[in-house]
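Forum: Protein Structure Q&A
Topic: Joint prediction for protein chains with partners

I've read a bunch of threads here and the consensus seems to be that you should model interacting components together rather than docking separate models afterwards. I'd like to see that in practice. Below is the full input, 1186 residues plus whatever partners are listed. Could one of the regulars post the assembled result?
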Amino acid sequence: MKVVNKKVGSVDGVGIMKGRKAFTDDYADKDSLIIKVKRSPHAFARIKNIDDSKAKALDGIEMVLTYKDFKRISFTRAGQGYPEPSPHDKFVLDKYVRYIGDEVCAVVGSTEEICLKALSLIEVDYEVLEPVLDFEKAIDNKTIIHDEPEAKEMFDIGFKPKKNIAASYHMHIGDVEKTLSECEYTIKETFYTQAQSHVMLEPHAVNTHIDYQERLVIYSSTQTPFHIRRIIAQALEIPMSKIRVIKPRVGGGFGGKQAIHGEMLAAYVTYKTGKPAKLVYTRKEVFESSYSRHPMKFEMALGADKFGKLKVIDCKVLSDTGAYGEHALTVFMVAGSKVLPLYNKVDSVRFSGDVVYTNHTPAGAFRGYGAIQGNFALESAVDILCHKMDMDPIKFRNLNMMKEGETSPIFAIMGEGTEGTPMNMDTCKLQECVEDGKALIDWDNKYPYKDMGDKIKTVGMAIAMQGSGIPLIDMGSATIKLNDDGFYNLMVGATEIGQGSDTVLSQIAAEELNTTIDKVIIYSSDTDLTPFDVGAYASSTTFVSGNAVYKAAKALKTEMLNEAARIFKVDIKQVEFDGEIFKVKNSDKKMTLRDFSNEITYSEEQKQLQVTSSYVGPKSPPPFMAGFIEIDIDKETAEIDIIDYVSVVDCGTTINPMLAKGQVDGAIVQGLGMAMFEDVKLAKNGKLISSDMLNYKIPTRLDINKLTTKFVDSYEKSGPFGAKSVGEIGIDTPPAALANAIENALGVRMTSLPITPEKILQKLKENEK
Amino acid sequence: MKINLKINGISKILEVEPGEFLLDVLRRNNYLSVRRGCDNSSCGVCTVLFDNKPVPSCSLLAVKANNHEITTVEGIQEEANKLAKCFGEYGADQCGFCNPSMALTVYALKQENKNATDEEIKEYLVGNLCRCTGYVSQHKAIKKYLGEKNESS
Amino acid sequence: MEVNKFVEAKSISEAYDLIKADRLNKVIGGGAWLKISMKKAKTLISLDNLGLDYIKEELDYIEVGAQTSLRKLETNKSIKSLSSGILSKAINHIMGITIRNIATIGGSIMGKFAFSDLYPVLLVMNVKLTFFKLGEISFEEYIDIPRVNDDILVNIKFKKNDSLGYFKKVSKTALDFAMINMAITTTNNNFKIAIGSKPSIAQLSKSTMKFLNSQDKLDDEKIEKACDLAVEESNINSNVRASKEYREVLIKTYLKRGIKQVIK
Ligand SMILES: Cc1cc2nc3c(=O)[nH]c(=O)nc-3n(C[C@H](O)[C@H](O)[C@H](O)COP(=O)(O)OP(=O)(O)OC[C@H]3O[C@@H](n4cnc5c(N)ncnc54)[C@H](O)[C@@H]3O)c2cc1C
Ligand code: FES
Ligand code: FES
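Posted by a regular:
Agreed with the consensus. Here's the joint model:
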């Protein structure tokens, strides 16, 4: 291979570094109307009256929008395949506010100052209602958060709004109780994970204008431009043909932009007034009023026989979706479906639980998408069991984990909202991952711990899997066209959000077309110009969109050969193409690509060569990895220095090894953030205290020493050039690996995230008693 | 009120409000490479050079730039280009929202301390957060850039 | 920020008259803190043109103008030579250098921040503040008086010394406020200890100092005792960054390590 699996710099890094106009707000019309949202100070309340007369009277205020301006059409903000597996429980603006930070009304004016002034002049009369602030008390609470008749599920997701249940699910294989009773060793533990924030550095941003064809153009910092177009068309009853969504460069998403945020209001304002408008979230709005990771509670039970063979996994989950049910069911499902198959040799397994509404900031999509939560619970529980059995955790995993060629019945049972898809693990190099990782971290010399004086050195590990798109649901497509002078345009609906997909997809096209990456000019994504793609989520881009690009490139090549055969007046089988030159076999007839493309553009039988191909995955081959952490713990203060994090990953062929490493590195650090630093603090009334970057702490470069990221040789037949996905897998292992390391060193089991030195000391103290 | 300042070497007279911050004034005047991440000096995305020193433009009153020199990444294109090449070599660019500010800060470090140690590089850049890369590849790329000879400008 | 007017003061007395004239007139140092703490001011009074940005070495002290940036202090050789360079070290632990390039020593002192990483250091270093009206007072005195809202801090004088120093800040990430911070100096076995971010404002640990300074020779047991004393007299509490209990552990641990380091 010439381009794929090679060190290729990103196609856009230079321009971005040089500060070229790139991100959504760079494209905002200079005289855009500014939109500012008034946000609820109450966790739950009914709006009795909004007095906006003073605000409307202000010079420069164009309009004030309240729920009265909108027809009651329920929708979900979640950008997912349609019909969505998320309940339609949201209105553009509503009479009820359901969390502190929820939208009350919006002002639209000429400058930010005037809008802020107007916000302060609006008087809202609330009937304050009793909120649900403890997700363990949400079910059958006397407060019903979604009592409105319009709230609905699109198909059966276990939606029971009267019980504050946004979704629920149950599955089991075998008889869990019976198997547990037969096990030599059993353990039970409860785990909690927190509402991590994405903290992508570019806040949510949108701007809108009407173009000269009188159509609504939306620039949005989004992961899902096509879903945005659909949701806006439905909720605002604008013909879809009148809407164009352009996704410029996106400054990080991590799932946080897999939904509608300010787009709805901006679209409405421009559609109504005909004037350009923009809405950029403040950092506080990003924290408080977009959405976070779903906090979850896991009640885990495991059982093994006397040889250390895992026999049973029981996993009961309670997930907090906050005030709205974005991604409620699907994130919850992934906590099982992309975690439990890791141990596929059990006799019995059960996964069940509810996703509940509370009056918290909503939860939604976030890299890992439930798998990080589930992984923390399962991989912690596994180590607890190992300690009970006095068995080396690596030996245990080698004995019990998924191997190549095997399968798990869970794949067929659990999908994302629908049934799953059965599949065999045609590639699964978990064993190599574990072996290599063990050597790289020098496990044998450091496990379980080493006394270093003031500090204890220790190691911990966890294994993980993810998916590569949602099988039979996620669709990606690509258009490739040949230009005169012999270069190509590649148009994809796949959304580059910083993960490097524009580069990776260009590489796939260049490889198949036997050319260099500078000859492939990629453009993503624009609902008018690029073919449909579900967007950047579920680790789908390289696998799903990459396959589409591969197919398109292949088809275009065939068309080119056809045309060349016509020009040479020979049979297509006689023509060879090496990326630069067309040749007729056993003859000296040849033509450069450049001459060829000029000929078919300008000379005879001119035509535009262009191909569009689509791809839907029949399966979703999981990437796998083993993560190993080395830490030094201060004996007195329990402060933790992260010495190294070793990741050994099987993601199939790495189309771009450097960018793949970047995905893993970045995800590991984000996972470490969740494991150690990213504490979500709430006031008694439900207000988020950690709602700015002074109070919500993500890892800095001084907190990270070394990341050792390696890829094992692996080739997934169904992927483009053997690739699986790599966008999410990296985030899954850090919480469990850290918790396991701490138990290895100190003998205490940390069961809630984040794991802080303070909590460790508390636990040690409790254990002394 | 009016302020006199140099932006990227060019003298400008700009109209600003007394309570306005430099970031807003720059963006209003089409210096779009300067962007907002947090708005409370916690992320580094809005960094510009103020008399060659990196500062958070979200937290610096525009009037304070009166009679001073401001440099945005538009003013150090050649250096940004070099740094971008190093980033490319180590796969250190992802979304790039942090990158123009990174270029300015790294450039300032190069002026101040060409032989910075690993720890000094990290300390100098710690205020420039990045949520995408995990920092390690950036660090390698920055070291490479700092080690390069033949500084122009 | 809602500001009606911005004035470059031409003299310190003009600045002084302006703050006296209206409670909503504010002096601005670097303005970094004002950005996150103030919504509204009538007149902002800039001290930028008063020649207060300097570090001057005199025979037995170093004088620093109030408008000197934290970064300039941090990197200054003379400042680094005081008490093992703990002032530079403390500044080095405040956010990133971008902020330290705009934040001033004047603003840092006048803000009376309970989280201040500088306060413990200034308390153990023999520092004098010169105010326009109030005249010269020691930093120790300044800590005990209520917040000064109507005077201008002109300069800060650091007495030269050859004491040994120790500084420690514990925070969640490198960019966070402190859970605790502390500074120790010792000159001829005479200890000064100050602890801050408890979360209340920094104080000298006077009983602890008295105890340590009355010992002939320090052994582990006496150091332990000193650490207990420090915890006892420090009025420690909980906030979002750390609990009272954890702060106690941190203080004990790092005070012990600090004392051992400076007596080595
Ligand atoms: C995001 C952020 C994080 C921070 N983190 C830390 C930290 O971890 N540790 C730490 O120690 N510090 C921290 N600080 C504080 C910082 O170090 C400075 O102390 C602070 O910004 C004040 O300096 P300034 O020049 O910005 O003051 P300004 O904001 O200009 O002024 C602060 C106050 O002092 C008054 N003032 C300024 N100069 C004078 C003068 N000469 N005479 C009289 N009054 C004056 C002003 O009117 C105002 O009330 C942080 C600050 C910010 C913004
Ligand atoms: S926007 Fe200025 S530091 Fe974040
Ligand atoms: S590359 Fe995205 S924040 Fe740094």
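Residues A 694; B 40-42; C 26-34, 36, 47, 66, 70, 94-95, 99, 103-104, 106-108, 110-111, 113, 115-118, 152-153, 177 surround flavin-adenine dinucleotide (ligand 1) (CB under 6 Å).
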